[in-house]
Amino acid sequence: MIQTQKQSAAEVAYRHIRRRIIDGTLQSGAFLIEQDLAAEIGVSRTPVRDALHRLENEGLVHAEGNKRAMVRDFSESEVEECFELRAQFESFAAGRAATRITPEGIAELKRHATRMEEVVNDAGPEAALKFSDLNDLFHAIILDHAGSPRLRELMRPLMQVQLVLMKRYRHTIEMHLTRSCWHHSELIRAFEAHDPAWAESQMRTHMLSAKNPGAA
Amino acid sequence: MIQTQKQSAAEVAYRHIRRRIIDGTLQSGAFLIEQDLAAEIGVSRTPVRDALHRLENEGLVHAEGNKRAMVRDFSESEVEECFELRAQFESFAAGRAATRITPEGIAELKRHATRMEEVVNDAGPEAALKFSDLNDLFHAIILDHAGSPRLRELMRPLMQVQLVLMKRYRHTIEMHLTRSCWHHSELIRAFEAHDPAWAESQMRTHMLSAKNPGAA
DNA sequence: CTCACAAAAGTTGTATACAATACTGGGAAT
DNA sequence: ATTCCCAGTATTGTATACAACTTTTGTGAG
After folding, report:
1. Which of B54, B84, B151 sits opposite A85 (nearest CB)?
2. Which of A3, A39, A105, B203 could crosslink A101 through cysteines, CB 3.0-4.6 Å?
3. CATH node for A9-71
4. Is A158 in contact with B150 (Cβ distance < 8 A)?
């Protein structure tokens, strides 16, 4: 049976606004007027409010007092900060995942890694975007197997923000993609060995390397 | 000039519900019915909804789909999980803070540490609660000086949850308090030396020690 | 021209009513 | 007895109206 899965208005609003922030239609500092967004999306202000709160918690939107919300400013320094935090937390998560990940989990990682390599080789016009999505899934799998729901929740905002930043500043350039693929395959090996220290170190390397995409 | 600072209904609702969760009036698994809470607090459902969303993001409330929200279940294993995550994140924060903290920041830390020692010595009936509050402030100061707003935001839910857990399971027993004071003074020394590795290590020690309060 | 200030417009916060969904209990089929 | 299903009730989701607050605009004094 096909699940047409009716979505709540709040969810629709959330996706809509999120998309517009990620694709750059709504740039840093742009005001998010509830009324306007509601009219644009075709729902009332109530679900829009919910969506904005959610986006605020995820760090994509800034709001304070009774003032109008705006798209949060993502400076270059924030990119650095995100990478550093992710290097710290995801390596921790990788270490935990090493001893907990299931064979199915590893198979899933391999599937995504393979897809990413294909994307890099085909090198279509949207390669960077496709890669970015797959990459997020890859990292999400690892977090899911870290056996800590709280950690998973804590990381979400960080991943969100970086999704925006990557697409905006094109941090994922060609050179970097092939290197990432190599890191991913190494990571998978560490997981297969169920070696926490290796997995942790490998993940840290991966993140810190991504932080400096320009370096030869 | 005295700021009477009129609070929004949403803020009032948030504080009210949060308090009831922390002091145990609302126990794990209790249903949070918007209508009832609204009547009890004396506001409409709208700000109550906002408050519940906020509490959900902070990890104190669980909700999914259109089902009614409930007070999240805080198992013993979650306590362990929180301590582990905090050991990881706060030691990282402490390392960063070591090179960034100002003399004023250090003075503030000392002030709080001293107050905590007094509380432990006086040993009044509410010593544990007072200590817990001061302790939170102490750790908050360090996070504030880590120079990473994102990290600060990420930690908030973790601190919140633990506040509940500590009060509920009385993790802060006498033995543990004096030990914590000792750790705090050591931490301050590390900050005064502006030694990241020392501060980080000391904080990790502190958190992992707190995780096992029973050990002699 | 610039500043201060007040009026007007714009926007968010809250309350309330209704719609959609989830929960509860009892009765029928097995 | 047990399971399934249905209707009735409870609760949440959404829309709308109004109140409170914020921002902009316009006007006059210096």
Report:
1. B151
2. A105
3. 1.10.10.10
4. yes
Q: For residue B25, which amino acid is it?
A: T
Q: Which residues of B touch A84 (CB under 8 A)?
A: 148
Specify the residue for token string 């991504």. Answer: A210
Domain B76-211, CATH homologous superfamily name and number: GntR ligand-binding domain-like (1.20.120.530)
DSSP code string of B173-215: -HHHHHHHHHHHHHHHHHHHTT-HHHHHHHHHHHHHHHH-TT-
The tens place of each residue's pLDDT in chain B, 216 residues long, gives 444 556 899 999 999 999 999 888 999 999 999 999 999 999 999 999 999 999 999 889 999 989 999 999 888 788 788 889 999 999 999 999 999 999 999 999 999 999 999 988 887 777 777 888 888 899 999 999 999 988 998 888 888 887 777 666 665 555 678 888 999 999 999 999 999 999 999 999 999 988 876 655
Bases in strand D with any atom closer than 7 Å to a protein CB: 10-17, 20-23
Domain boundaries, chain A: 9-71, 76-211
Listing DSSP states for B70-92 in one string gives EEPP--HHHHHHHHHHHHHHHHH
